[in-house]
Amino acid sequence: MKTIVLLALINFIGVSTVWGACRRFSGAEQIWSNPSLRFVFIGEVHGSNETPAALRELLCDALVHGRHVTVALERPSVEQADLDRVVTAKDASAAVARLLRQPGWRQGGFDGRASKAMLRLLLSLREFQTPEAAVPIFAFDVPSVGTRPGVRDEAMGNALLAIHQKRPQDLILVLTGNAHAFQAPTFGYRPAAMYLPQNERLSLEVTSNGGQSWADIDGACGVARMGASATSGDRLREIVLDPHLAPFGKVDGILSLGVATTASSPAVGKVSPSPLCRKKFVAEHHDSSSRGPSSKLHPLSAQAHFFYMAVSVNSAKAFEFYP
């Protein structure tokens, strides 16, 4: 049954589109036309359908404008070989099945980073693997040593620098949690973006008109409702280089999706035994299934789940959970 579902997903993604048909973001041209840029951070709230899809469209648009592009994803570097197989192997179904056996997808894929939307993104990158312009993909969440605050961000920043050394002429599109894309210390340490040359990097914080996301907050994972940002409000599908529009954190501007987001559940589907975060989620919300969304906002911790807090810190609503 799982194989049938995977093949159906692959067939759906496999419909080819020419690069000129990509759906562009208004304002993106100012990025593609800047020859000094080498890193463009797309700082997201994990777990939506719309942001991974937007990255594919940005890649398409950059190629149309003549840029050579590399894609960097906040995935564990131990997955690199399996990610490459998903993007390049003739047997995509077998490659996907192998990737989904990775711990980061099977046991640890419940925080929104290993979603069905992320898998769709990986499969969509297959259409860009041509002899004329193959698009490399890199996992930059490398193992870090030590327990001091910020050690993981430092390792990720250095990993991105290493990717740049391998692909010095490429523009690197970086999809990551928004806190890693900030350009000023937030919790007493430098985010990953700050390890890159200032004149070669640009950070965009993803905003939406509210909606839902699959989130893991305080150890409970499931569908959460997000409030629209009071600073960016309901906007069109556009890129605006205005730091004041970002909900939180120092960035160069926003990538406005122009829609309310929808939640993307884990690509691996239901697993047995159920992960602890799902058990906690179900236990906390078992009595709400008959009456719809809980009216009580979920408490947010300041640091561990900053990715999710950032999009709603200036909003009247933060997150509501669904069973």
| Main structural class | alpha/beta
Number of contiguous helices: 10
| Distance separating the two termini | 25 Å
User: Sheet with the most strands?
Assistant: 7 strands, mixed
- Count the beta strands: 10
Strand line-up in the sheet with most strands: 3-2-4-1-5-9-8
Q: Write down the Rg.
A: 19 Å
Strand content of the residues, in percent?
15-25%
Low-confidence stretches are: 1-18, 289-323
* CATH topology tier name: Rossmann fold
Give structural attributes.
323 residues, alpha/beta, Rossmann fold, 7-stranded mixed beta sheet, 10 helices, 18% strand
What does this structure look like?
By secondary structure, this protein is an alpha/beta fold. It has a single domain, classed as Rossmann fold (3-Layer(aba) Sandwich), CATH 3.40.50. It contains 10 helices and 10 strands. The strands form 2 sheets. Strands 3-2-4-1-5-9-8 form a 7-stranded mixed beta sheet, sandwiched between helices. A hairpin with a 2-residue loop joins strand 6 and strand 7 (220-226). The longest helix has 16 residues, at 151-166. The radius of gyration is 19 Å and the shape is globular. The protein starts with a helix and ends with a strand.
